[in-house]
Every structure is written in structure tokens, then in C-alpha cells.
């Protein structure tokens, strides 16, 4: 079942083209990532899906219908700009958000308390929003997005402001929602999170679609002859070897992309004895590598 169909949408502001003829679909039970650098058009795309902005051209359907008020109860939307009333108490805020999605007060309160317990903030129910940290406010906003049990979650930069523990907590919830048949579409520039979570992705740059498809197919399409090495000693000579096409040096290891036709075992023989190798592993290209290759290639074109 197609939950969301975006067909050839564009949006301009004067001479500036924010989104340029972008199309994609999101199926039921899928985690779909909209990826791209800052200013790529991710948020503008999401706002058009939510009917906050009207596309200049193209069409958008949700559950085979145009967006309407009756559909909003089936969608949970987390905007990039968080909007909570600072003087309201946390539980009152969540009940209010639930009522906006068609829940009665009693059902909204029960759902709010359940989610607050799961996200480990139940003790803050009677605190004012202004007393919460940015990360805790982000949790409240997320609860307000999911508490009415929507069929489709649309999350704009959902991990912004969260520490690693709470980021993992949110990822676990997203995976569980998918296992329950929900669809999740989220935007991010965090490639590692997208790579671990997404079934399918759309990569946009300068308002245009540059890549989309199933994650596994994209990883296969852009697979490179790559290795990762941990070693002791000065390995700067490695990047100058004629067999090396790419070299990323980190504090604890290096990622190396070999030129076509160079076997990892043959390359290993070239560096044995010059550094003390602790780990040598063939790897696949990360989504971050693919992102840099495509977007960087466009900048240099």
C-alpha cells in the first residue's frame, strides 16, 4: 500500500528554486529518509506534504487522498521548529495536543502518561514546559506526535537536541512503530542514523532529487573497494601510494578506498612491516561516503 505519493512537486521563492520537480513514494510499514545538506529543500518538501505550503507544480496524496483535516488524525507531524507553550504544565500540554488530534481528554491523558513513562519523564508531569531542558522538551514534542497512534509519522530532524542515549531511545521507538505496520518519514543530515534506520531514502541537493531507492540497492550500486585499518605508527605514507583512491584518517583508524582492480590482500602486503597492523577489514561504502561522493561531485562539476 502506498501511504504517500509525491509527484513532481516544485516550490520557488522569486528566482530561488527551493524544490525542483521532486517525486517519491512511501509505502506502508516503511522507514523513509529524506537526506541532504542544510538548505537542500528537505523542510520545504515536508511542509508541502503537510499542506503548510502549496506546491507551485505537482501533486501530493496521502492514503490516496489530497490532504484534508480528516486525514490529520492519521498523521503525526514533528516540525523542525518546536512549538510548546512554556507556561503550561507538561501533562496539560500533552492532553491539549491529543485533543487537537481528536482524542478526548481522558484518552489523551492515559496515552500521555503511558508515553511519558516509556520516555522516562513521568516525574515531570506537573512541571512547566519552561522548566525542562531542550532535550526533554524534544521528548514532549515527540510524545505529542505519536500519542494519537497515527498511521504515518512525518519527522523533521527528529534527533536534533537529543543526546546519544535519547537518540537511541527514539530510534528504538521508530523501529517498533514500523514493526507495527506504521510508516515513518523523516528528514536528517545525520547519515549514520539514516543508514541504520531507513528501508528507503531520497537524497536531495539544491532542491533536486539526486538519488533515491531502497537502501540495500543503493549500497550495492555504490559499493567500492574499501578497507578499514587500525595500526600503530606513522601511516601517512599510505595516502600517497598509487593503489589508493581515497584516504580518511581518524584518531583510531583509517578508511581507505582502493583503486579498481587492487585486491585488499595485495594491498596489505604493501604496508606490512611499515606499520604495526592491529586490524584489517574489508568494508562497504557507508551512506556518508556515498553522500560526500554525490554531493561533493556536484559541487565540483
Strand order of the largest sheet: 5-6-7-3-8-9
Instruction: Measure the end-to-end span.
Output: 39 Å
Instruction: State which percent range the strand residues make up.
Output: 25-35%
Unreliable stretches (pLDDT < 50, length at least 5) are: none
Number of DSSP strand runs: 13
* Shape call: globular
Structural topology:
Elements: E1 2-13, E2 16-27, E3 31-35, H1 42-49, E4 57-62, E5 75-78, H2 90-100, H3 105-118, H4 134-146, E6 152-156, H5 164-179, E7 183-188, H6 191-197, E8 200-205, E9 208-214, H7 215-221, E10 226-232, E11 244-249, E12 254-258, H8 264-271, E13 276-283, H9 287-300
Please characterize this protein's 3D structure:
The protein is of the alpha/beta class and 301 residues long. 33% of the residues lie in helices and 30% in strands. It has helices spanning 42-49, 90-100, 105-118, 134-146, 164-179, 191-197, 215-221, 264-271, 287-300, and strands at 2-13, 16-27, 31-35, 57-62, 75-78, 152-156, 183-188, 200-205, 208-214, 226-232, 244-249, 254-258, 276-283. The strands form three sheets. The chain has a six-stranded mixed sheet, with helices on both faces. Strands 11-12-10-13 form a four-stranded antiparallel sheet, with helices on one face. Helix 2 (90-100) crosses helix 3 (105-118) and helix 2 (90-100) packs parallel to helix 4. 31% of the residues are buried. The mean pLDDT is 91.
Amino acid at each position: 500500500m502506498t501511504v504517500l505519493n509525491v509527484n513532481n512537486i516544485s516550490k520557488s521563492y522569486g528566482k530561488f528554486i527551493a524544490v525542483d520537480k521532486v517525486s517519491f513514494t512511501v509505502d506502508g510499514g516503511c522507514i523513509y529518509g529524506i537526506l541532504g545538506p542544510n538548505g537542500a529543500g528537505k523542510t520545504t518538501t515536508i511542509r508541502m506534504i503537510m499542506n503548510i505550503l502549496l506546491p507551485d507544480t505537482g501533486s501530493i496524496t496521502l492514503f490516496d487522498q489530497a490532504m484534508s483535516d480528516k486525514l490529520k488524525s492519521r498523521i503525526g507531524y514533528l516540525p523542525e521548529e518546536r512549538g510548546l507553550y512554556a507556561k503550561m504544565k507538561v501533562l496539560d500540554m500533552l492532553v491539549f495536543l491529543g485533543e487537537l488530534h481528536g482524542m478526548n481528554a481522558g484518552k489523551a491523558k492515559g496515552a500521555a502518561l503511558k508515553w511519558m513513562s516509556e520516555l522516562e519523564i513521568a516525574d515531570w508531569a506537573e512541571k512547566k514546559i519552561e522548566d525542562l531542558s531542550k532535550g526533554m522538551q524534544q521528548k514532549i514534542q515527540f510524545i505529542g506526535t505519536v500519542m494519537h497512534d497515527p498511521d504515518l509519522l512525518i519527522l523533521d530532524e527528529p534527533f536534533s537536541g537529543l543526546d546519544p542515549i535519547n537518540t537511541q531511545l527514539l530510534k528504538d521507538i521508530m523501529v517498533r512503530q514500523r514493526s507495527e505496520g506504521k510508516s515513518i518519514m523523516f528528514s536528517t543530515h545525520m547519515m549514520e542514523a539514516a543508514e541504520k534506520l531507513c528501508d528507503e531514502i531520497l537524497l536531495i541537493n539544491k532542491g533536486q532529487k539526486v538519488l533515491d531507492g531502497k537502501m540495500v540497492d543503493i549500497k550495492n550500486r555504490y559499493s567500492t573497494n574499501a578497507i578499514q585499518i587500525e595500526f600503530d605508527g606513522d601511516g601517512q605514507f599510505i595516502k600517497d601510494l598509487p593503489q589508493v583512491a581515497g584516504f580518511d584518517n581518524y584518531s583510531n583508524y583509517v578508511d581507505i578506498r582502493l583503486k579498481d582492480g587492487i585486491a585488499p590482500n595485495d594491498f596489505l602486503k604493501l604496508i606490512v612491516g611499515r606499520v604495526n597492523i592491529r586490524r584489517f577489514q574489508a568494508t562497504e561504502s557507508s551512506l556518508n561516503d556515498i553522500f560526500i561522493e554525490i554531493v561533493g561531485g556536484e559541487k565540483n562539476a
